[in-house]
Amino acid sequence: MLSLIDLLLSRLASLLPSELKSNEFIKLAVPHRHSMLLSQRRATLIVNRVRMFAFLFAVLTPIWGIIDVMVFSYPLWLGLATFRLLACAAFVCLLLFYRPSGNLFDAYRALALLFAVPTLFYIASHTLLGEYQLTQLSAVVAAGYAFLPFVLMAGLAIFPLTLLENLVMASVLLLAHAIAGYLSWATLNWPSYAGGFWLLLLIAGVAALASLSQLAFMIALVRQAIRDPLTGVFSRGSGQEILTLQWDTARRHDTGLAVAFIDLDHFKPINDTYGHEAGDLVLRSCAQHMLSSLRSTDTLLRWGGEEFVVIMPDTDREQARLALERIVRRGLGVRPDGKAVTASIGLAERCTDFVESAAELLELADRRMYLAKTSGRNRLCFESDDAAVETSAA
């Protein structure tokens, strides 16, 4: 029985994108498992595609109104034209006034607005058309309005959405289709309606697969772009983005933000004596030791060479000092000669040090790291003058 389950799971796993690691599959299902940088870049992409979609609808929506004038009688085409102008105005507002902020909830709001406008237009126009007896050409043109939910459902494919987000959006469109059917209950063609509902479900499934495929490629590309290939921790470029985001959050909520600059002591002799492969092994081991001692909310960056940076959000100086001392007590790894790896550490904190920018916070931590190094290495420095308060990292 267990072997059958394992076989089934392996077959299902083979259907998932090969670009992802096994521990990343959960990121295709729910958004809260995404990193801060992935969420930011995904939010920006979603808003940009919302604006592109809004531009397309803003152009095409009023153009079709010409067909309405040519086919429908005066009271009907005027009502449809009113709905079209209102929808067009909403699309133009979405295009002009919505800009990417990198915030995922802003992206959700933009996506909701984009799909709400044509959904409301579909329900309103479907109800209005149901009040008239249409024949021949007018009935054919009116049937075209019924295809709007299919266009919207297929449109989900251009967004990198998780499975949960796809389910929510598809459910809303299916609900709109159900409401439109309820409003025209008396004249509803049940075989046609049931077939349309089933087709919507099929399109929703295909769109979800396309959307998840986009998300998988995005996860893989972002991972490659933001991670240091040697140690697996965040790279310097992505670290600067993370620090800026954490700084903005700390300023907005008036909370602490600590940054530690860590430089491994006497690292160059390892490369000179034992070779770069041994040095790389020490760096990887050191990064893993630090990661095992950090909180899930903290971020470890490889700044360059043997330098690392730790970003600790919602943390005051005393909490950060205790956390760093805990990391050092647990050890940073072992050198090829069997001795313990030590480090010179500089610590700065937003509130205690009264810094005015993320760059200034990082620069202050860097200066204190050099002060710790010139004061004998293997120590933590969290003051900046000659009478610096230092604690041995041993």
UniProtKB/TrEMBL annotation:
Record GO biological process: cell adhesion involved in single-species biofilm formation; negative regulation of bacterial-type flagellum-dependent cell motility
Write out the entry's keywords from A to Z: Membrane, Transmembrane, Transmembrane helix
Any idea of its EC number? 2.7.7.65
List the InterPro entries hit by this protein, alphabetically.
Diguanylate_Cyclase, GGDEF_dom, Nucleotide_cyclase, Rev_trsase/Diguanyl_cyclase
Q: Name one GO cellular component term.
A: plasma membrane
Q: Does the keyword Transmembrane helix apply?
A: yes
> GGDEF domain: which residues?
255-385
* Cofactor names: Mg(2+)
Q: Where in the cell is it found?
A: Cell inner membrane
Q: Which Pfam families match?
A: GGDEF
Q: Which reaction does it catalyse?
A: 2 GTP = 3',3'-c-di-GMP + 2 diphosphate
Membrane-crossing ranges are 50-71, 77-98, 110-129, 135-159, 166-185, 197-222
Name the source's superkingdom.
Bacteria
- GO MF, one example: diguanylate cyclase activity
Determine if Transmembrane is one of this entry's keywords: yes
Q: Which PANTHER family match?
A: DIGUANYLATE CYCLASE DGCM-RELATED, REGULATORY COMPONENTS OF SENSORY TRANSDUCTION SYSTEM
NCBIfam families linked: GGDEF
Q: What name does UniProt use for this protein? A: diguanylate cyclase
Name the species this protein comes from.
Answer: Stutzerimonas zhaodongensis
